[in-house]
Amino acid sequence: MKLFCKDITQLPDSGTIERWCRDGEHFVLKFPKNIREEKANIITLLKNQLPENFSVFNSGGDSESEWITIMPVISRDIIDENEILIRASIADYIDTCNELMNGLETNLNDISNAWNKLLDGEASDYVTLFNELMDELETDPKISKAWNIFRHGQHIRFINKNSGQIVEVPVLGISRIIEVDPYFWGHFVESTEKYSSINRLIKDKFHDSARILEHLTLKERNRINDIFEDISDE
Fold first, then answer.
1. I need a labelling partner for 190 at 20 to 30 A (CA). Which of 184, 198, 205, 217 fits?
2. What distance lies between CA 45 and its chain's CA centroid?
3. Which residues on neighbouring strands pair with residue 58, listed in sequence order?
4. Chain-wide mean pLDDT for the chain?
């Protein structure tokens, strides 16, 4: 659903927005191009008016209009109620990524350094190194027996031949929640039977997963800040 607003005075009220999104649908507010500089303020205004389980974000636009998308996402309360299993699934995803890349002859640090050079506009052997990594994985009997593998951007997609589990492994490494890609973690949860109860909570694979990871990351930061405050008070 899309709604055109000439200016901020035509924004629908929060109750109307909630009714429109009742079935989990998202909708897009379209504005004239001349509100581009006000977009961030409009997003903040909408976020402050809506319940916490609504995501409001800049969704680009076209040659004639600017767009802001509004959609319901998983609530903080539901995340907190399922935090133990959610954290277990995130840890499992990170561990599985690292296990699949352990013991390789290809030096992953070399690939990371080559990628950084590429980003800086320098000559790089990144493509050659990545191809060598793929060749090694495809000829590794442990990997080839259990997994189908595909290059996927800066990731390698592993699909388990028996269970169908999908693991998108970032070649440049992963160790913390903040480094987890929401969409790829959502695929992992969806394809891993023991996390089916978590998968049922995720209606939108990217936005709900992003909300979960963002909320847990913020909780970790607050916990660390509290520890430092306690230390400074002693």
1. 217
2. 24
3. 68
4. 89
